[in-house]
Amino acid sequence: xxxxxxxxxxxxxxxxxxxxxxxxxxxxxxxxxxxxxxxxxxxxxxxxxxxxxxxxxxxxxxxxxxxxxxxxxxxxxxxxxxxxxxxxxxxxxxxxxxxxxxxxxxxxxxxxxxxxxxxxxxxxxxxxxxxxxxxxxxxxxxxxxxxxxxxxxxxxxxxxxxxxxxxxxxxxxxxxxxxxxxxxxxxxxxxxxxxxxxxxxxxxxxxxxxxxxxxxxxxxxxxxxxxxxxxxxxxxx
Length: 237
Known about the structure:
Blueprint: H1 16-24, E1 40-51, E2 54-65, E3 71-80, H2 90-102, E4 111-115, H3 127-135, E5 139-143, E6 164-169, E7 172-178, E8 187-193, H4 197-206, H5 216-236
Parallel strand pairs: 1-4, 4-5
Antiparallel strand pairs: 1-2, 2-3, 5-8, 6-7, 7-8
Helix pairs in contact: 2-3
Site (Interaction with target DNA): 85
Catalytic activity: Endonucleolytic cleavage at apurinic or apyrimidinic sites to products with a 5'-phosphate
Subcellular location: Cytoplasm
């Protein structure tokens, strides 16, 4: 797949903040495309491990058909991780592997769902938002746990499927705590880019089945990442 390089990778640490501040001004939280045309949905996940003091990472992207819910393509990339973990700037650490994996895809996704945050971020630039400028497609962030952003607050949603509570700072909505299953912890959903929060919520719920509180593409990508990581680790032992 073609990737639009909006900046070089990797990036010098001193440029992290200015790059994200600049990109945040270009985020579009509206849906201009007909979601009925969101046929091919990509799930993106990354995992890490240490080997003799060297950190490695792997990115898995799976694509499902939103009608049949069947996996129609898988791709992964692995390599040394050269960018340190800095809270708030995780995207710069994950983007190199994500972009390399996107380039391997032969089917063009209509929508990407990331295991992580999007607009729910101090600079409104979580991985789902930042990556959107490279893939030029609508994106959604799906997080399994809450990443507190400044003074953002929310209430726990009612214990019923589809219940949600907005996560806000002042009058700005950054994302939602969404109950995808009854009696199960909520997930945290935020727009990445080129999509509005109501549409992102509706589409996420449409891709959740009885097997997991996560939407199918994200869940399968997570499982695939763990599977391949285990194989790669075994090769070094």
